[in-house]
Amino acid sequence: MSSIKKSKPLFVVCPECHLEHKLQAKYGDDIVFISALGGLYQFESFDEYEEVSQLISNQNINRIYIVNSHHCSFFQNVIVGKKLKATYAEDTLNNLYFENIEALIPLNRISEKIRLLSSLFLKSQGQKFLDSPLLGDRIESGELECIGLFIDHEYTFNEVPIYGTTTI
């Protein structure tokens, strides 16, 4: 008798946001986390692609959630122009902010700017996963789903596809 392993999701989360408990409350305890500052997973070598691909296979992962939160200090710092951490995540978000400054400047509320920056970020991260060796083909074939998850200031979970024209 063969046992069928239940598929489970993988969440890429910023450790500074402390969202693991909230994610477990919503999605259950049988989930996997990868910590990445600002939710920005940086593949630095082919070995890292292999490790993530192996993790996905070994844990029977069927969905990758790239998680952003309104409460993330990396997003807030970029929006208000404060540069404290000097990390790859903050530099990447800063660049994304200035590449899209014409769309961000007219927005009055910080929460609106964070939501738009998050949407842009989720799409760019999704594209990185799609372009990655070992993962891109699995995403394109539908074997693996890649979803953006924005958690707003009221801790409402907003799941969105991160490919195509959908925005949050």
Write up what this structure looks like.
It comes from Reichenbachiella agariperforans. This protein has a 5-stranded mixed β-sheet with strand order 2-1-3-4-5. The longest helix is centred in the last third of the chain and has 22 residues, at 110-131. The chain has helices at 20-27, 46-58, 73-80, 88-99, 101-104, 110-131, 136-140; strands at 8-13, 32-35, 61-69, 145-151, 157-161. Helix content is 43%, strand content 18%. The protein is built from 7 helices and 5 strands. The protein is of the alpha/beta class and 168 residues long. It has a domain at 8-71 and 119-161: Beta-carbonic Anhydrase, Chain A.
Condensed summary:
This protein has 168 residues and is of the alpha/beta class.
Give me the strand/helix succession. EHEHEHHHHHEE
Q: Distance between the terminal alpha carbons, to the nearest Å?
A: 45 Å
CATH architecture of the domain at 8-71 and 119-161: 3-Layer(aba) Sandwich
Oligomer: single chain
Tell me roughly what share of residues is in helical segments.
Answer: 40-55%
Largest beta sheet: what is the strand line-up?
2-1-3-4-5
By CATH, the superfamily of the domain at 8-71 and 119-161 comes out as Carbonic anhydrase
From the alpha carbons, calculate the radius of gyration and give it in angstroms.
16 Å
Number of strands: 5
* Major sheet characteristics: 5 strands, mixed
CATH top level assignment of the domain at 8-71 and 119-161: Alpha Beta
- CATH T-level topology of the domain at 8-71 and 119-161: Beta-carbonic Anhydrase, Chain A
- The rough form would be described as globular
> Ranges with pLDDT <50 over ≥5 residues?
164-168
